[in-house]
Design brief:
mainly beta; 4 domains; seven-stranded antiparallel β-sheet; 2 helices; Jelly Rolls; single chain; 9% helix; six-stranded mixed β-sheet; 389 residues
């Protein structure tokens, strides 16, 4: 049954009767509106507005047109009124803690076809009790899905398992957490700090610790690593078998004679311009540079020539290192020998810190600057060393 407003009854001359008839007519009209709301009726379309107006009570199911943001709904005049809205376009419903309470306490952006049911729980104050998306999903499920997406409070961090199986959407990167990138099927590769795969790399001084095993990167070019006790060098690709050939070691010599370099007391740094071997590449004429802190046996022999005059009275050889000098053989008196040739030498275990240097100096005094340092392929003048411990 539908109640509608009737035509005004005929007026009579009695003012009291006329007043009563007018009041009765208004009450009948109001009752008709309430019955329409309770029994369900499609009302006229409602244009979206800051406050959605439903005051004409011509139904309880309304199409909402337009895209204007809605922040409130006008009062129906009766607490407990329930209305249903069908949204024809995308617009914003703005949550309010008392005037327009939305599910989850969050704003909603509608999509054409969405529907919502509201109850007027207090005069002019509405609560959304049901919201259904046009695609069939409930609003709460959609919100739950959003929290699982990237940046959500409980974002899913597992690969979506979609084709292809090497999907990279969720890979680890330097800007976000993620999954380990697909392995390259190469046992020499390790996962790097930039989220890529590569051969281990670092800089001198980098330390790696696992349990009681500790190593320190020393030389990336050769792949050497060093125990923190500075006792041993091991190359990462040769951890089994004889490792002694991987220890730093060198043998350098003078390949030619250096003429007229001393004799008058001049101190000369011996050149050692050629190499027999240089494991680790730590010798550069005329200097050896310790790659790590340790104990290094260092040996040298230098042969002087043209000591023919009997005026030469001193010949000496010295190992010069960053920590200290080591005087070697020092010959005094008349020093020329058979054919004017004399050899001096030293042998010492030197303490050297990483990047300390070592070179050899010689001097002959007492005569003219005409003494040569002999050279040649038979290593009559040479300098050698290695890491001992």
């Amino acid at each position: 049954m539908r109640y509608v407003k009737t035509n005004s009854p005929p007026m009579v001359d009695d003012p009291l009767v006329n007043s009563g008839l007018s009041i009765l007519n208004e009450e009948i009209e109001k009752m008709g509106r309430i019955v329409n709301l309770l029994t369900g009726k499609k009302g006229e379309d409602k244009p979206s507005a800051g406050t959605l107006d439903i005051s004409d009570f011509d139904g309880n199911y309304f199409d909402v047109t337009g895209t204007t943001t809605i922040t409130a709904i006008g009062s129906s005049g009766k607490i407990g009124t329930i209305i249903r809205l069908h949204f024809d376009a995308s617009l914003a419903l703005t949550h309010h803690a008392t005037n327009l309470i939305l599910p989850g306490g969050a704003n909603i952006t509608t999509v054409a076809g969405d529907e919502a049911i509201f109850i007027e729980y207090d005069m002019g104050k509405w609560r959304c009790i049901v919201y259904t998306k046009a695609n069939g999903q409930a609003l709460v499920l959609q919100g739950h899905k959003t929290t699982h997406e990237s940046g959500g409070s409980d974002a899913i961090k597992l690969d979506d398992l979609a084709s292809p199986d090497d999907n990279t959407d969720l890979d680890l990167s330097i800007s976000k957490h993620g999954l380990c990138p697909k392995a390259p099927d190469d046992i020499t590769k390790f996962l790097r700090g930039d989220a890529g795969w590569g051969i281990p790399a670092g800089v001198a001084g980098d330390k790696i610790e696992e349990g009681n095993s500790k190593v320190e990167v020393v030389d990336l070019g050769t792949g050497y690593i060093q125990t923190l006790a500075d006792a041993l060098l091991v190359r990462k690709d040769q951890v089994l078998g004889n490792i002694q050939p991987l220890q730093p070691a060198f043998l350098a010599y003078n390949s030619v004679t250096d003429p007229n370099v001393t004799g008058d007391g001049t101190t000369l740094t011996v050149g050692f311009n050629a190499e027999v071997f240089d494991q680790g590449g730590n010798f550069a004429t005329p200097t050896f540079t310790a790659p790590v802190t340790g104990r290094y046996p260092l040996n040298a022999i230098v042969r002087f020539d043209d000591l023919d005059a009997d005026t030469y009275h001193t010949a000496e050889i010295t190992l010069v290192t960053s920590n200290r000098n080591y005087p070697g053989v020092r010959v005094s008196g008349v020093i020329y020998g058979s054919g004017g040739v004399l050899s001096v030498q030293f042998s010492v275990i030197a303490d050297m810190d990483a990047n300390d240097t070592a070179h050899v100096t010689v001097a002959v005094a007492g005569g003219a600057k005409s003494v040569d340092i002999q050279g040649g392929g038979d290593l009559v003048t040479c300098f050698s060393g290695a890491l001992l411990c």
